[in-house]
Design brief:
Helix content: 55-70%
Organism: Salix udensis
Number of helices: 34
Function: Required for 60S pre-ribosomal subunits export to the cytoplasm.
Family: Belongs to the SDA1 family.
Structural class: mainly alpha
InterPro entries: ARM-type_fold, Sda1, SDA1_C, SDA1_N
Number of strands: 4
Oligomer: single chain
Subcellular location: Nucleus, Nucleolus
Length: 784
């Protein structure tokens, strides 16, 4: 039955309908156009068979362009048409997607470029409308990316990434994702460079977009560093190095402003004492107050930055593909062995070296042969020396034996820091030494540190700043290595670095000691109040006692020892018995009771010292007498204190209020330390291992040498507002205005009397000169 007969049988005119108009009508009335669908489907099959026959008879040229372009045009048009109407005819076109995929799989290399793209677009349309599953065609689309057609490669790659993202948008199907990942993992392990490269690029893109953000994908990307092809290895190394972003800690102002503008009430807490704020705003001169305010702002910014970084670490926002390495030690050893034996160019070796150092520092691995390997390249004239030194710093951590790093450390000191070295090299060397000592402080000794500290007097800013940063570090780590004038005011004068292998074991909740100290201070305050009450009650009773007071400071508290001489009276035996009974109890509550040969008794009372004003010694007279005469009341108070259990000794569980108080007390402590340290805090080993070392920071304050073009550009920039050079005579001759005031004074007519006076002065001056020189006759010469 012909097409005209079928159209007339269906009640329509026999004139030819275009495919786009027929497509729109089919979508409106699918059942009424089933006959036309069958005709177009048969035409597609015939065109497909004809094309395959021509391909079998080698009618295709070597470039892949078919000899008969009309067949390609008809095939691509009908394929696109059927792909659009397939959702409306699922039963009639059930085999069409499989035929299209099989056609692409078998004849993709011999198809013309235009036909290949149209057929691929038709298959993508079917997949987007859920007529075909992506797992059935993923291998086909990955194969299409290796054909060398740029348009087709971009089309297939974009489709794969978009389809997998769409599949994981609402929820993740782990089983389906694993099946798709296995396809790409197998392709990545193949020796074919083109397939492995496309698989690696797809995995990297999905991992970067956080679609496949799991350990299997990250681990497979890391394992691509051992591919037999150097291009695949370089691509994997580049992705691993470029994925991690260097954190910039120098944006203090922007961080502070963003933190202040944040309306979230759970933002970083900064607790500054009222005394510091009062001194910064109300005490001292204008310049001193300005310095105090700047110090407060530095402390606030430092605390906010530290709290923000700690919260980010607690929330696990930091991520790196190296975190998912299943065997980090084996990965580093394999890559290091390949680095030692490979013949790649220097840039590739530097990339491998950075990845090894990053892995060693992040996982705290022990790779002892890595440091002697670095030692060979530590020279000031070495290419990319700052990147190499940054890798050396990254590979240092507290788990490495100091003896293994010591030769590398000495090599850096000897090659970079000496009197004949350039200032740039000295600055970089001092910065590297500071970063290494921040991780392994045991490498530094007293003589070396004192020699390095002398560079603080250098006239080069970069060198002096680097030396002062080294002093600041050892003020916190080990002040005893510095001479007295360089120590400043250390927080802990007895601080020392941990010995190799030393670990601090936490046995309680961090910050719980602050809570206990607060409760202890509150109890002492209550005791002092009770003593004051007793003193006010008994001050009028006894006034004939002889007393001696000695005070000694202990930190923020004062221990006052009161020795009260007892007069011998009838109640002496009774008082001695009372003192013996209460002696053991008073020792536990900081009230010591002793008797000497002359019947002396000492009562030690611990009193908080007020920071704002000092109490006069005469104020304690009544309190001392009251304490002496009220031992029975003290005994009663001690018994009540011993009976009172501590706040957390009942069950050992802290409440939410306790944790909130710990947080506030920790913030106050950090504020006090930040004000003293001027914003500097030694980071923990975990923070140092997670943080990537920026090579640019090793060259801080170093002025780069300008090229000739840059110097000329600076000279020209300074001449923009200046006219071209001219002599003064040319400028005067070119002058268009009148004479200057100086010129007018020279041309001014003098009065007659002034002229005569001037002539007379000149005559007299001439006469004086002759008198000074002597009268000599200067006649004519005797010869001619």
């Amino acid at each position: 039955m012909s097409t005209a007969d079928s159209l007339s049988a269906s009640g329509r005119s026999s004139e030819k309908l275009s495919l786009p108009s027929l497509q729109s009508k089919m979508k409106i009335d699918p059942e009424g156009y089933e006959t036309e669908l069958g005709l177009v489907y048969n035409q597609f099959k015939s065109a497909l068979d004809l094309f395959q026959q021509q391909a079998a008879l080698n009618f295709a040229s070597s470039s892949g362009v078919c000899a008969d372009p009309t067949i390609s045009k008809d095939l691509s048009d009908r394929a696109s048409f059927l792909a659009h109407v397939t959702p409306f005819y699922p039963k009639q076109l059930a085999e069409f997607p499989a035929q299209l995929a099989e056609f692409l799989k078998s004849s993709a290399r011999t198809l013309p470029s235009g036909l290949r793209c149209h057929v691929t677009q038709a298959l993508i349309l079917l997949i987007n409308r859920d007529m075909v599953d992506i797992s059935e065609t993923l291998a086909l689309f990955m194969e299409l990316q290796t054909l060398g057609d740029r348009t087709l490669r971009n089309l297939a790659f974009t489709h794969v990434v978009h389809s997998i993202r769409k599949m994981n948008k609402k929820h993740k199907n782990e089983a389906k994702n694993r099946a798709l990942q296995n396809i790409l993992f197998v392709m990545l392990q193949q020796d074919d460079e083109a397939r492995a490269k496309r698989a690696l690029i797809t995995l990297c893109e999905l991992h970067r977009r956080k679609v496949w953000f799991d350990d299997r994908t990250a681990n497979s990307i890391c394992m691509a560093c051992f591919h037999s092809s150097s291009r695949i290895m370089i691509a994997a190394l580049s992705f691993l190095l470029d994925y991690e972003k260097i954190e910039d800690d120098d944006n203090d102002d922007s961080d502070a402003s963003s933190a202040e503008d944040d309306p979230n009430p759970r933002s970083a807490q900064v607790v500054i004492s009222k005394e510091s704020i009062y001194k910064a705003h109300s005490q001292g001169t204008v310049s001193s107050k300005k310095k105090k305010k700047a110090k407060l702002q530095r402390a606030i910014r430092s605390m906010k930055r530290q709290q923000r970084l700690s919260s980010e670490n607690n929330n696990s926002n930091y991520y790196s593909p190296f975190n998912h390495l299943k065997d980090a030690q084996g990965f580093a050893e394999r890559l290091f062995s390949r680095l030692q034996t490979c013949n790649e160019r220097f840039e590739v070796k530097m990339m491998m070296l950075k990845v090894i150092a990053r892995t060693v520092g992040l996982h705290r691995l022990i790779l002892l042969n890595f440091y002697p390997f670095l030692q060979k390249y530590v020279q000031p004239h070495q290419r990319d020396i700052t990147n190499l030194l940054a890798a050396a710093v990254q590979a240092c951590h507290d788990m490495v034996p100091p003896d293994a790093v010591e030769p590398l450390f000495k090599q850096i000191v000897n090659q970079f820091v000496h009197d004949r070295s350039r200032p740039e090299a000295i600055a970089v060397g001092l910065n590297v030494i500071r970063e290494i000592c921040l991780r392994i402080p045991l490498l530094m000794n007293e003589d070396l540190l004192q020699d390095l500290v002398l560079y603080k007097k250098s006239h080069e800013k970069a060198v002096s700043v680097a030396a002062r940063s080294l002093i600041t570090l050892f003020r916190e780590v080990c002040p005893s290595l510095l001479i007295k004038k360089d120590r400043g005011r250390p927080i802990d004068p007895k601080a020392r670095p941990k010995a190799y292998g030393e670990v601090n074991i936490v046995s309680s909740v961090p910050g719980a000691e602050l809570l206990e100290q607060l409760d202890y201070n509150d109890e002492d305050k209550e005791d002092s109040d009770d003593v004051n009450e007793l003193a006010s009650r008994g001050s009028d009773e006894d006034s004939e006692n002889d007393e001696m007071v000695s005070a000694s400071d202990e930190g923020d508290q004062t221990v006052i020892v009161v020795v009260v001489m007892r007069r011998e009276d009838e109640d002496q035996e009774e008082d001695d018995e009372d003192s013996n009974e209460v002696d053991d109890e008073l020792v536990n509550t900081n009230v010591a009771h002793e008797t000497n040969e002359s019947n002396a008794r000492a009562i030690i009372i611990k009193v908080n010292k007020s920071p704002s004003r000092k109490r006069k010694l005469s104020d304690f007279d009544g309190q001392l007498l009251a304490a002496d005469t009220s031992l029975r009341a003290l005994k009663k108070m001690t018994e009540e204190k011993l009976k009172k259990p501590p706040s957390d000794s009942t069950d050992g569980i802290l409440s939410n209020e306790d944790f909130q108080r710990i947080k506030e007390l920790t913030a106050k402590k950090d504020a006090k330390i930040a004000l003293t340290r001027q914003g500097f805090k030694v980071p923990s080993s975990d923070d140092l291992s997670a943080k990537r070392v920026d090579p640019a920071k090793l060259e801080a304050h170093v002025r780069a040498k300008l090229s000739k073009e840059e110097r000329l550009a600076m000279v020209r920039a300074g001449r923009e507002d200046r006219e071209s050079y001219k002599s003064k005579i040319a400028v005067k001759q070119k002058k268009t205005g009148g004479a200057s005031n100086r010129q007018k004074e020279h041309k001014k007519q003098m009065p007659l009397a002034a002229k005569r006076a001037k002539v007379e002065r000149s005559r007299q001056e001439k006469k004086r000169k002759q008198n000074r020189s002597g009268k000599q006759f200067r006649g004519k010469k005797a010869w001619k």
